[in-house]
Design goal:
It is built from 4 helices and 7 strands; from the N terminus they run H-E-E-E-H-E-H-E-H-E-E. It is of the alpha+beta class. The chain has a single domain (35-170), classed as Ribosomal Protein S8, Chain: A, domain 1, CATH 3.30.1370. A hairpin with a 2-residue loop joins strand 2 (54-58) and strand 3.
Amino acid sequence: MPAARPPGDESRSEFEQALGDATPLEGRDKVRPTPTTLRRRRRAAPAGEGVTFEVDGIGERIEGRAPGIDRAVLRKLRAGEFERDARVDLHGLSTGEARTLVRETLTSVHREGGRCVLVIHGRGRHSEAGPVLKEQLVDWLEEPPLGGLVMAFSSARGGDGGVGATYVLLRRDR
């Protein structure tokens, strides 16, 4: 009795037959895919001076969560499942103005019992320095007083601005 062939073995021989006498292209560099996920752990903030988020960047998308926050919360935020209590648009503002507006808005929304804020920062396409406000936003969220208020953040869904906007989820007031 002939030995049983492993599953998919028929396909492999058909594939090899289809290739026949194919030869690799000459002088063609092999391209190694670049990692699509940038995972970084933020530096630890000195005691009492903020919080350290676990931050993931995937392409232009960015998301992060404070220590002890379940990944399920981040998945819900990423999916846009939290009702937006406020929206703040940073287009046209300087870095200092944007930082002040983000702090004031998040602090005010938290004080009023709100949970989710949509921060529109743009993609940085019209800036020679790239997405400055988007990159600064993570640092601002870690700093006091915001560090203690923020649970998680995630790039928005397409209908809310996509990678040019970020959902920020605030802690409930205890």
